[in-house]
Amino acid sequence: MDWPTPPPRPTGGHKGTFGSVLIVGGSRGMAGAISLSGQAALHSGAGLVTVAVPDCIADVVAHFHPAYMTLPLNCDGKHLDAYAAEQIEANMLGKSALGIGPGLGQSEAVRSVVHRIYRECKQPLVLDADGLNAFAGCEELLQSGGKVRVLTPHPGEFARLTRRRISEVQENRESLAREFAQAYRVILLLKGERTVITDGERLLLNPTGCDALATGGSGDVLTGLVVGLLGQQIDAFDATRLAAWLHGLAGEAAAAKYSAEFVSALEILEGLSNAWKHMHSKAGNP
Predict the structure, then answer these.
(1) Considering the entire predicted model, what is its pTM?
(2) I need a surface site. Which of 94, 149, 189, 270 has the fewest CB within 10 A?
């Protein structure tokens, strides 16, 4: 399998050159997930990153990293409320890609917000975690209508979306992923050993990664990478493939430095530096 090609980095570029992305997530008790996604988007090379979170946790999320912007959204004291959809839509203007899901939690208001943003967003959008869970039982709403949509479920989330047992998903990962991507016209990244990436026609198995990635927050890092790379306006399938490859390399680098048992999502973020260097060396870039 050929190595993915990193997005171009013109020497005269500025932060506007490399995209502006918005990631929606978080709830009381799950502020870390959206922070990890925001930090990963920063380390994907995206020029500007905004994390949109319930206002009850906005100060906490802002504290995690000084380089992303924080957008407080209406909430009920724990989760987003229905009005948050209007706030998100008002802030989508000028963004090159969106993500929604990390740490959102589950409620009727969250479901309605996710459905509306998924339907109305014209930019490439990544759906993960509780963003995916919002469609369990109403999978027909995932029809993309020709818009760029990337879904990044783990086997449990994919089992809920397909109304199958996890064991059945694991036994038929490639065929089920391809069928799902074809049916809903999305790009599907099905996590796990040899992560499956398919748009219903093309199908790749990611060759990088190790058991160090089996830790809470790892998927949030991957989400941020996909959103950040999409925001740099490269082909959506290539962005998804590159994100998975980098994520796996970062896990390998973290495990080599610390041991797989020690690694948390923070060490995976740290490992992205080595992942990018390795990627550029394979691509023949300085």
Answers:
(1) 0.97
(2) 94
